[in-house]
Specification:
- By secondary structure, this protein is of the alpha/beta class.
- It has 26 helices and 18 strands.
- Strands 3-4-2-5-6-1-7 form a seven-stranded parallel sheet, sandwiched between helices. A six-stranded parallel sheet has the order 8-13-12-9-11-10, with helices on both faces.
- A hairpin with a 4-residue loop joins β16 and β17.
- α2 packs parallel to α3, α16 (373-380) crosses α17 and α25 packs across α26.
- The chain is globular.
Amino acid sequence: MERAAEHLRRVFGFDGFRPGQEEVVRTLLEGRPALAVFPTGGGKSLCYQLPALLLQGLTLVVSPLIALMKDQVDQLQALGVAAARLDSTLTAEEARDIYDRAADGRLKLLYVAPERLGNEGFRARLRRTRVDLLAIDEAHCISEWGHNFRPDYLKIAAFAEEVGVRRVLCLTATATPSVSEDIRAAFDIAEADHVQTGFHRPNLTLRVLPCTADARVPTLIDRLRDQSGGATVVYVTLQKTAERVAEALNAAGLHAAAYHAGLNNEVRARIQDDFMDGRVPIVVATIAFGMGIDKADIRAVYHVNLPKSLEGYSQEIGRAGRDGAPSRCELLACADDQAVLDNFSYGDTPTDASIRGLLDQLAAGGTPLSVSQYHLSRDHDMRPLVVATVLTYLELSGDLVATGPFYAGYKLGFPQGRPAVEARLDGERGAFIRAILGAGSMGRSLLSLEPDVVAEQIGQPRERIVTALTWLEQQGLVTLKAASLRHGFHVPRPLEVDRLTAELVARFQQREQADIARTASVLAFAEAPGCLTRRLVGYFGEELGQDCGHCGHCLGEPAAPVPRSAPASLTESDRDLVEEVAAEGHPALAHPRQLTRFLCGLRSPATSGRNGLQRDRRFGALEDLPFLAVLDVAEAHRSA
């Protein structure tokens, strides 16, 4: 710890640790796994960056956010720390240099996305590297009952065991007690090594402003004019709302830009840079903005729409005031948002027919089994994340045993020409590689080959073939592009399709209801009397002990019911529209839930394909209506 304190001063420029950091660093240096639950801006990153400099091997950082990776790598490099990131923006030569530096110890920190841990080429290269610490950002994604479950996160524990790294750090800002328990169980973290600092941020003033739907934008404009300015983030739910609100703010003489996933990468990058540098003071954004954005002087965060969960709300307001200066977090609360948020949850739930169809396909595949999640998604009208979740559930129940993801094919390019490459190959290795190349199919400029087919032709293991291809790329002799990602499984017993269908249907319904309950908890928070800060931190298992004294309610603003319009119901013309589309008999809309998704404007693989349904003028025609109300009419039509 003396060396840690020295590096803290010399490299990072800090005279001392922030709350919780020293305990986490000490736990890791002693060789034990740890869980750090710190609020946004609480200094989680230092908890692995500092030990990384003291450990002999590589620190591998798993993060789902490219923006965060880039930002942190840039900062570390500016401090003279050997750090890098692997992502899709790198050239083959850049990636090769990173692997080489990791293998020979010249690299201290390497940032990757969780999906990369399943890449067989990545795992093959990592075998040359000593990994001393695995840091997992956004670790709440491990919990299937958390607000942002990602199936890839469930595979990280197995990866840690495969590479033999015991020293693991899980980091999150939004773990409820049950989610923290899931994380500790996954990585065998002792309860004593769970370090949680307070969620209370005394410099944040939380307010709830009940608004009708029509009053929200005028209220926002008034609030922005009345306040002292500064960098501001305005969160909304839909892309079109971001555009509309930004346009209204600019018309009112306020300088704002819309930011959402529908913009191309170049535009989003420009808006983000303009906001970071102060050229654009206000960004109106969906939740696509802000993850990993390290801007200390954000003075205000407004929610024009209800956040989907209190976890999301806490994460979003946590981006304000990281410099410790007073900052505003105001929720313009209208209950009309609940239908749209609930519709997203209902739209994610697969139909029972889709689940059964997928299971039938798996059952017919025998063992060993290999599947393409892309094709399963397309064939059974499930979003890729839902397909991944189904496969993960089957793994958790022991009905499938993962043998690992792999690429069914590779395409090789020859920058120096193929003859020049083969001229450099000699001996047994040269004969082996020539046999591999000879089993491929040469196109105009690229050689295509399938490792499984090559393995059968030349009588060598697939792993040796992939290792040889990787070696060729590392030597700069070929460019290597993987294609057709597939997932391999062993099927230990025949799949009981009837039982598994019933269990999975029930499980997705349970998840659906958990999501609906999270949205309801936001409304309950907005309408509840008493200290807002105390209620929010209590949701995360922290007892504040007394009222904060600085939220809107503590400052004398009474709690009030959140305005809600009269319950929306289908008009006769709406019912006619449901009947009209159903009568057309589109195969992609055969199930009432598929039809309801289409009319409520919820994208799915079936409507996003070449059939043009997503471009149909009726797509999203009933998006403002409750999903269940539309579903009732669609189901009545099928029963008629």
